[in-house]
Every structure is written in structure tokens, then in C-alpha cells.
Amino acid sequence: MYLKEKQADGAAQSTIYSHRSRLGHFTEWFQSETDYTHLSDLDGFDLKLFKLERFGEEDDGFGDYSRLTVKTQLDTLRRFMHFNAEIGAVPFSLPHRIKSPSKGDAGQRDNEIEDTRARKIAKHLDRYRYASFDHVLFHLLWYLMLRVGTARSIDVDNVHLDERYIELHHHPGQDTPLKKKGKSERKVAISETTASIIEDYIDTNRNDVEDEYGRNPLFTSEDGRASLNMMRNRVYALSRPCTVGECPHDRDPEECDAAQARNVAYKCPTSEATHAVRRGSITWHLREDTDKEIISERADVSVRVLDENYNNLSEREKMELRRDELPEGL
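C-alpha cells predicted for Site-specific integrase (330 residues):
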């Protein structure tokens, strides 16, 4: 009914298609993830849950989505709910429970760590912090394109060093859920180098502890599984320019709070969050002409999302990638 009214109001077919596509994700979630029969059964908590399941936490950069994409999709959902409120299908208060990112931030693309910077960080870890917590974490985020929550979920017995792969499992009841639940479960190949680093980390630097469920986490604190905040702070600290070189902000590291304390490393203007490592890796793989299906399966992100949110290639790079797909001689 909503789309028919937009069509009757003279909306272009492209607009109708866009709204149908955006609302399709909500419709699928409503039908598969709730026990409700009518939209009127929804409340504000349900809509917040949908937003979290669809896009992730705002503090974590909305996962694989740009702020503009999140704003556009939630704005459409809010219009849809306004329409339903006007015809009495949902309470008038419900549309106002849908919060979009602020307009001032929505057009800003979340940062990505470029491959040259990633190589400097990896080289620094190879030389000065071999087989450390940070060394393993960076390898998994960059080379495997994992989300930080996925990396946190890994147990020691999920790592198969001889066969060189890692199993990823969804355990929502044990505080290690995966982004897309069971659909995110998979096996991810690791290189010989990564396998050696993980093996040496387990043998020498990993705390020999269990989590509260009796599992042996790969990433540990002193008394159990490392928290997400702990892992995020590690990446903020690793990505500070002064970690591998000079400060670009003319600050004295001895007097800079962000340089001195890991838990405030995020205050450095050019430190990066965990999603910037993953995004940078995905963009680098696209530039290296890795097949999108391979990236999709390895990084657990759809080809459509790759096209919508990892489109940072220059026009010339896009042209060359298209050229490679053409039959020889064309």
C-alpha cells in the first residue's frame, strides 16, 4: 500500500525500486526474526534491535555500512512507519523511535587504513612485538578481513594450525555471537606465516585461562576472554602514527595523553578503529582484483554491500577492473 501510494503520487520508478529494496530488509527481518503478525505489535525496542542487527553499533562504525547508507535506509523506514501511523496501523509515536545518524555526519565516509600503512604496522609488529596479542589480532583483521567481534569469538581449538584454517562459530548464549548468526559460520584459510605467529602466541604469550563458559579463548585478558573494548583499544593504539613513525600533529609523544595510554589512544586524531582495518583490507583486495565472490565469502559481506560501500576505487581503477572482465580483444 505504501509503495502504491508513492507511485500514485508520481514517484519515479527508480524511487519505487529503491524504497522496495530498502524496506525488503525490514520485511525479511519482521517475518523471520519476530513472532509478530501485525506491525502494531512492534515497539521502540524492536526497532532498535532491528537497527543493531542490520547495521551494528554506531560506535563501531556501523560495521560494513557507510553512515550515509544507514541514514538513507532508516529514513525510508521512518517514512514507511509514518504512513502506517497515518492509517492507524501503528501508534503515532512509533516512527519517532527510529533514529538516523545526524545529517552532518551522514555524508562522511568512515576511514580506511591504506595498504601502505597496514604494511608498516605489520612490519613493526613482526620486528618488535612478534607473536603478541596485537600481532595476532592485526593479522586476523587485515589478512582475514574479520570483524573484531568475530576475532573475539575464536577459541584455541577453532585454530587448525597443521591444516591452516580457523573455524568461526556463532555462540550467542556464551557472549560470542557472529554478525549474521549461523550464516556467518565458516572456515577461513590462513597463511603459513599467520599460522606460525598464532602458534608462537599460544605457546608463549597467551594467558592460559578459560572464559566463564569453560572455553579456551584465543584472545585473553588476565582472567578470561578479552573484551571488545580491550581489543578496540589495542587497534586504536596500534594505528597511532607515532607507533611506527613520527607524529604528524607536531606533538611530543612524552606529553601526549593519546600516545602514553592505550585506553585513550582513540583521542589521537589519526588513530583508527577496528573497522578501518577491515575496510582497508577489503578495499585493497578489490584493488588487487580479487574476485568479489571470494572477498564476499571470506569477509562475510554480500557482493551488493561491496558494491555499495566499498566503492572507493578511482574511475581509472574501475575501468581497468571492467577491462579485465571483458573477452580478450575487446
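Strands lie at 159-160, 165-168, 186-189.
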